[in-house]
Amino acid sequence: MHELPGAEGLETLGERVGAVRKLSSLGQRGIEYLIIDLSDEDKWVRIAAADVLSEAGDLRALPYLARMVTDPDRDVRFAAVASLGKLGDPGGCQALAVAAHDKSWFIRIAAEEAILAIRRAGKASAGRNDAGEGGPPLSVAM
Predict the structure, then answer these.
(1) Which of 25, 34, 49, 82 is most buried per CB count within 10 Å?
(2) Does the pTM exceed 0.85?
(3) Each residue's pLDDT tens digit, 8-38
(4) In a domain, 97, yes or no
């Protein structure tokens, strides 16, 4: 794990995962550290980082999360799928389509549900005007 100010001496898994969860409070710098944590050797750090990044809604994490859907560890793949679904960006659908063919049935189901939710959200937002209501955009007469 990278060295953060004040993170020296973190030895237990709980301490390390707790430190990952606190990174979002560092703003831009924290997001960069979280992206680095997606490659950590400890699967629980990778899982925590994916979760925190999806909660932050930062789309810079999308390509890194997308790579995680092929991680050798099933729990990490599931976390990646869940995080891509939570981000809700259509850019994650290609990786989710790969995960929809995973050997693990629950990852396949999670990927398919995430794709459907992203598609539904895209259709719903396409029919909204600037006021967030359905129907065609309002025109302003001048």
Answers:
(1) 49
(2) no
(3) 444 666 766 666 667 766 677 778 888 998 9
(4) yes
